[in-house]
Each structure stands twice: as C-alpha cells, then as structure tokens.
Amino acid sequence: MADIFDVIADGTRRDILQFLRERGASGEHGTSVSHIVAELQVSQPTVSKHLKVLREAELVSVREEGQHRYYSLSTAPLDEVDDWLVPFFDDGIA
Q: Where are the domains of the chain?
C-alpha cells in the first residue's frame, strides 16, 4: 500500500476526496466518474488515474453496475493521518 501521506499530498486527489465526502454527507451512495469530472473540471483520464491511486490506498471504494462505476469515500485509512496529527494539537506547544 502506498504511503497515505504521499497519496493525499496531491491536490487533485484531495479535491476528489472532498467531493466524495460532500456527496456522501448528502446521502449519495456513490458518485460516477462523469460527476467528478464535471464538478472538478478535470479530464476523465486524469480523474481515472487519481481514482486508481485512491482505490489502491483504500481511500475510495467502487461499486460496479453494468458498465458504470460509482465511487465512495472510505475514511479508515485516514486514521493514520489523524493519529500522526493529534499529538501536534494535544501537547500544548505553541
């Protein structure tokens, strides 16, 4: 598995994660690549490339229906980021 910090270092991947988070909060059960392309105004090949990286890092899950694929956010891998960040907020050093 790729280093989670390397995966989320890319701005386009963070934008995709943010978009999927917002869609999931509104009750959506997956978002198509075409919706991500339209929202982010990034080419389909670029979005697909980034979704592959996010999928390999287990940050997104994919549900296939026929020829369509629907992506959802999987937050569990972000626990590593959270675990790393928390001490910076808890130790009171300013």
A: 4-88
Nearest C-alpha neighbor of 32 from the set 63, 10, 57: 63
Residue 44, both tokens: 């389909």
Whether residue 40 is predicted with pLDDT greater than 70 in this model: the reply is: yes
Q: Which of 30, 26, 91 is nearest to 60 (CA)?
A: 30
Q: For residues 3-42, b (16+ Cβ closer than 10 Å) or e, as one string?
A: ebeebbeeeebebbbebbeebbeeeeebbebebbbeebeb
For the chain, helix (H) and strand (E) counts, in that order, are: 5, 3
Task: In whole angstroms, give the CA distance from residue 54 to residue 17.
Answer: 9
Copy the structure tokens of residue 55. Answer: 């999928």
CATH match of 4-88 with 1.10.10.10: yes
Maximum CA extent, the chain? 54
Question: What's the pLDDT band for 55 if we cut at 50, 70, 90?
Answer: very high
